[in-house]
Amino acid sequence: MRRLYNTEEHRQEVKEALNTGSMWLILRAFFFPKMARAFLIRVLIVILTAWVFFKFICMPLVIQGESMKPTYPSRGFMFGWAPAYWFKTPHRGDIVIMKYGRGAMLLKRVIGLPGDRVAFKDGKLIRNGEAVDEPYILGPSDWNLPERTVERNHYYLVGDNRSVPMEAHIFGEMHKRYLAGAPLW
Amino acid sequence: MVIQTRHIVWTVLFLIVLAALGVSLWLWLRPTDENRIRARFGKLSELVSKNAREGAIPAVTRAREAASLFTEKSSFAVDGLDWMAGPFTREKLSANMFRSRSMFDKIKLSLDDLEPEIDSEKGTAKIFLSAVLSGTLKDGRAVREVRELECGMLRTDEGWLFDSFKVRQIIKK
């Protein structure tokens, strides 16, 4: 029980506040104790841990744009899980988060791995010469893109919303160095 | 005051944390080629950026200082913009930089994701990075352009200097 308090003085402060019965004093004594060393160390550790966790491991992200509809809404909140690809590489069909300059990320689906040949014909994805069934996309789509081979160390990324004009949609191949993780959900 | 075991434990822990911080700081700041190169990019970003209107003389000084980070004849290749390609002398670079910066009220160049490949023996380096140029034009329009850069650098008597820049789309259809 003693560990709940920073110091003997803090314990005394809470005890006195409890005796007075004033809810304000109780809350103040509990949440805003006098700045004892132990309390400051605890606050510092919490801040540092939270910063590392939310900066490098589980990044809070706001979704803006309709390129991943219907899988993800045009506005929303999600967490990017950085360790998702620390020990493995993305597979075809995976949804990944890519760094897109400072302060922005791209949320896209991997449709081609290095060496794959990808093309769009009348909105249909053609990979390595074969039409690919994509039940997750939003259509109708009239995209036409000549075949290209995905370069070494690159992934071919496209959003699920293919109903927008091809010119207005940010998609294409991107180097693996920009891979930042995968959405947590 | 009586020294108790917990005092010794706390002191030892404090010293360990202090030593770890010291080592990290040293690793982070020690003058390696990579750190010098990173510092050059930091300097370039600082010199190109501007937060408010500036006078002609400070603008010329900044452009000259930025150009001094480049070799006497550096080359540029920009995907889709052939007129921006070719070799540039420091004077030409300085003039171009002055002209380009004067088109903006505010401008910020962020250089991130640096991936240097350094050949210490030859004194050359190839660096891949992402660049974001954001700002507000004189007519009030906001600009945000993201590009991938492949930069060549040379080690000279003046330190590491930018020798070539290849600018391309970070994601290409």
Search tags:
heterodimer, A: 185 residues, alpha+beta, Umud Fragment, subunit A, 2 domains, seven-stranded antiparallel β-sheet, four-stranded antiparallel β-sheet, 3 helices, 31% strand, elongated, B: 173 residues, Nuclear Transport Factor 2, Chain: A, six-stranded mixed β-sheet, 4 helices
Describe this structure in words.
The complex is a heterodimer of chains A (185) and B (173). With 185 residues, chain A is an alpha+beta fold. Chain A has 2 domains: 2-56, no CATH class; 58-183, Umud Fragment, subunit A. Chain A has helices spanning 8-20, 23-31, 37-57, and strands at 58-64, 75-81, 95-99, 105-112, 117-121, 124-127, 130-131, 145-149, 154-158, 172-175, 179-183. In chain A, the strands form 2 sheets. In chain A, strands 1-2-11-3-4-9-10 form a 7-stranded antiparallel β-sheet. A 4-stranded antiparallel β-sheet of chain A has the order 7-6-5-8, with no helix packed on it. Chain B contains 4 helices and 6 strands. Chain B has a 6-stranded mixed β-sheet with strand order 2-1-6-5-4-3, covered by helices on one side. In chain B, a hairpin with a 7-residue loop joins strand 1 and strand 2 (86-89). Chain B is elongated and about 75 Å long. The mean pLDDT of chain B is 90. The interface between A and B is medium-sized, with 18 and 15 residues.
